[in-house]
Specification:
43% helix, 4-stranded antiparallel sheet, 4 strands
Length: 94
């Protein structure tokens, strides 16, 4: 299944939500699964992004829906990247 990287930055509203309900993070992961994708790994990070999430989804349509649905909530801003395994990438170049 294709892999995607979802970078997220919390809005002020999202920071308040997470501070008052830290378990919301896991609830969102469950909602992502209901949309057809799966959270493989997740990190809280320092820097321009607050979270780095590795997701699997059957195709771009599903990950686009995840990104749009989450972004429409106004609690975070998202950047979604397609991840290509290095071996696959090298095969493409051959």
């Amino acid at each position: 299944m294709p892999t995607y990287i979802l970078l997220s930055t919390l809005s002020p509203h999202g920071v308040g939500t997470l501070k008052s309900n830290p378990e919301r993070l896991r609830e969102v992961n469950s909602e992502i699964e209901q949309m057809g994708a799966k959270v493989i790994s997740q990190w809280a990070v320092l820097g321009p992004y607050d979270f780095v999430n590795i997701l699997e989804a059957p195709d771009e349509r599903v990950i686009a829906r995840v990104s749009m649905e989450l972004g429409a909530r106004g609690t975070a801003h998202f950047q979604t990247l397609t991840a290509i395994p290095v071996d696959e990438f090298l095969d493409i170049l051959s």
